[in-house]
């Protein structure tokens, strides 16, 4: 857990799902159903979900699947009213530090090819392009750019 001036990153609880859904609906054109988060928290042994709070309000979250020494970001989002303030970068920095402590050596994610803002953040954090998943997003069949970072290199 990280706590700075009015900022906290902590593990998500079931009580957080409703508020996380507000971020989810704001950030994604095809948001997950709340039952997916419930299943991730209660049934998926590989899932790790973190929430990012500012002054006690959840403004973002990150979901991860951790298997052995590899992890994948399932989703990461900051509410639109809180973007452009460095929150996404701080959340991702925390996630990377957290995963290193768990012994994870490689982190991957998919991002819409049109989401250059997120891609630029990932590149800043050391991610490189690994390929394209054609027609990955169900809402508009947009391709996903696969990106990864070797956590042993930093």
UniProtKB/TrEMBL annotation:
Any one cellular-component term (Gene Ontology): cytoplasm
Main localization, broad class: cytoplasm
N-acetyltransferase domain mapped to chain residues: 7-152
Keyword Cytoplasm annotated: yes
E.C. number: 2.3.1.266
Keyword Cell wall biogenesis/degradation: no
Keyword field: Acyltransferase, Cytoplasm, Transferase
Coiled-coil residue spans: none
Catalytic activity: N-terminal L-alanyl-[ribosomal protein bS18] + acetyl-CoA = N-terminal N(alpha)-acetyl-L-alanyl-[ribosomal protein bS18] + CoA + H(+)
NCBIfam families referenced in this protein's UniProt entry, alphabetically: rimI
Role noted for this protein: Acetylates the N-terminal alanine of ribosomal protein bS18.
Family (UniProt): Belongs to the acetyltransferase family. RimI subfamily.
Name of this protein: [Ribosomal protein bS18]-alanine N-acetyltransferase
Organism: Halalkalibacter okhensis
């Amino acid at each position: 857990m990280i706590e700075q001036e009015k900022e906290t990153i902590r593990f998500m609880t079931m009580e957080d799902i409703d508020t996380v859904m507000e971020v989810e609906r704001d950030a994604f054109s095809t948001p997950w159903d709340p039952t997916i988060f419930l299943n991730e928290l209660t049934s998926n042994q590989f899932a790790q979900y973190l929430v990012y709070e500012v002054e006690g309000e959840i403004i973002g979250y990150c979901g991860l699947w951790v298997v052995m020494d590899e992890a994948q970001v399932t989703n990461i989002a900051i509410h639109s009213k809180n973007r452009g303030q460095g929150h996404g970068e701080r959340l991702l920095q925390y996630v990377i530090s957290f995963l290193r402590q768990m012994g994870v050596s490689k982190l991957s994610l998919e991002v819409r090819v049109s989401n250059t803002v997120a891609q630029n953040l990932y590149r800043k954090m050391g991610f490189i392009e690994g390929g394209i998943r054609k027609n990955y997003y169900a809402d508009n069949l947009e391709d996903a750019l696969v990106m990864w970072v070797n956590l042993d290199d930093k």
